[in-house]
């Protein structure tokens, strides 16, 4: 479920009128849009400067909206399908671009949680310190830190620690709306094995919360002194129940 503000924003269409944009060669009958603050007088000089004549000048415009051009989103969908082995193919329409993962984390907090409503996001400890700013500063969302104690952070045993954290928060009147994991983990440098991801996805399904997986270091694996390193598994790889909503970035 989205927060009230997330549900409101989901109804807003951000796409600009790409459907019938004027082009002197390809679409001479198209519409010339005068409403955007784009200086098309400079496009050919910009294209020349960036990449000679092969550069698509529509990339200098607001083009298809704020979430990335279809061409870019298709390229990312192809990349994810080729290298992240998702359980079902990812479509370009499911992809959104933003200026960095900090912004994506904040956007996820905004759409998952209502402000000033005792709503919170759950995180395991230790964790990337900037989450506390990125998820909370401007969103009005709280963080509930969960310690996995002396259990191994990446084994399925962490699932019961998160479940206990969820229940303890609920007993204090806090409503957890999402669990954020970092995979490969910052600062620990390890990856979550598939069975742990499945356990976490099942927990999120039981509790009706989002799983947000920050995979900024995807496909990078550090060696371990004590054993072979765990390979990276994207959260979209395990075949998951359709009612579970998860985000990766
Ligand atoms: C886990 C994690 N998420 C997000 C970020 C920030 O990403 P960006 O620089 O794309 O905003 C970092 C940067 O250190 C990070 O370690």
Mean pLDDT, as a whole number? 87
Which ligands does the model contain, each kind named once?
pyridoxal-5'-phosphate
CATH class of the largest domain reads: Alpha Beta
In total, the number of strands is 5
User: How far apart are the termini?
Assistant: 19 Å
CATH topology of the largest domain, by name, is Aspartate Aminotransferase, domain 2
Give a summary of the structure in a few sentences.
With 249 residues, the chain is α/β, with parallel strands linked by helices.
Secondary-structure topology with pairs:
Elements lengths: L3 H7 L32 H9 L18 H14 L17 H12 L6 E7 L5 H4 L7 E6 L9 H15 L3 E8 L11 H14 L2 E5 L31 E3 L1
Parallel strand pairs: 1-2, 1-3, 3-4, 4-5
Q: Could you explain the architecture of this structure?
A:
InterPro entries: Aminotransferase_I/II_large (IPR004839), Ethylene_sulfur-biosynth (IPR050478), PyrdxlP-dep_Trfase (IPR015424), PyrdxlP-dep_Trfase_major (IPR015421). One of its GO terms (molecular function) is pyridoxal phosphate binding. The chain has 249 residues and is an alpha/beta fold. It folds into two domains: 66-97, no CATH class; 99-248, Type I PLP-dependent aspartate aminotransferase-like (Major domain) (Aspartate Aminotransferase, domain 2, 3-Layer(aba) Sandwich), CATH 3.40.640. It is built from seven helices and five strands, in the order ααααβαβαβαββ. The protein has helices at residues 4-10, 43-51, 70-83, 101-112, 131-134, 157-171, 194-207, and strands spanning 119-125, 142-147, 175-182, 210-214, 246-248. A five-stranded parallel beta sheet has the order 2-1-3-4-5, with helices on both faces. The two termini are 19 Å apart. Bound molecules: pyridoxal-5'-phosphate (PLP). Pyridoxal-5'-phosphate is lined by residues 100-102, 128, 182, 186, 214, 216.
